Amino acid sequence: MKRLILPLLLAGLVGAPVRAEDKPSPDLAYGAYQMGLYISAFREATKRIEANPNDAPAMTLIGQLYLDGQGVKKDEAAAAKWFALAAARGDAQAQFALGLQKLAGKGLAKDHDAAKALFEQAAAKGHPAATYNLGIMALEGDGKVPDFAAAAPFFSKAAELGDLDAMYSLAMLYRAGNGVDKSLPEAVNWLGKAAQEKHVASMVELAVMQFNGIGTQKDEVSAGRWFLKAAEADNPIAQNRLARMYGAGRGVPLDKVQAMKWYVLAEAHGEKDPWLDTMFASLSPDERTQVQKLIESRLGR
Description:
2% strand, globular
């Protein structure tokens, strides 16, 4: 699935797997799937199809098992076959999944137009991720200049349907005024909704806006809480910002040891910071030992 990452400068596209909430749900088969009993899930889905050759959700689940190599040998071509059978019977998740395969050329020939048509079929049934991906395709435009105005309605619809990446992307459009009238409060609104659902990129951007009082009342304490949540999810930008907050005692208690713990973790991901380097150099041997112990504890050593 193409997932749009829209930082402050509105950058590019990345891939992401089908999310758990997008997975098919054919009763007992899906119950087994949810518990990680993939062989049982395959058997139950097969039984359903034997009893009803038009059981599209069961076909979709078998396609997903083949795609992920769970309970059966990974086989993208077999996955595409099962998704196609279910998609022809109107299953929105199968239409979406088959669209992803056609878009990436996994298990079958790459076909951008066919992928778009499948996303449109799924989106017409209210599939959030398919709607979001149509936004990505609209954003791509002619491949040279991003068409934010064309993408915005899709992101808005997908966000209303609960797609977290769409909420984040829509927020970034509102923040920059790309494709929509600029509205910092709307950006904060959508970032807040996504952050509450543990969308890490939204946590980071919301924290930035709260810390600086952009589109919302300045609140360094709340910003610190969001940076902490994102830092604990291993986001290096959040780890760096949290380290700075601990180092300056802003929004969180002044604590050089905590500051250096988060900075070392951020630096391991390439987040360099001369100001924090200077602080690290000023640590006493005892403080360095404390930092090391905190890092080892976090890494489970």
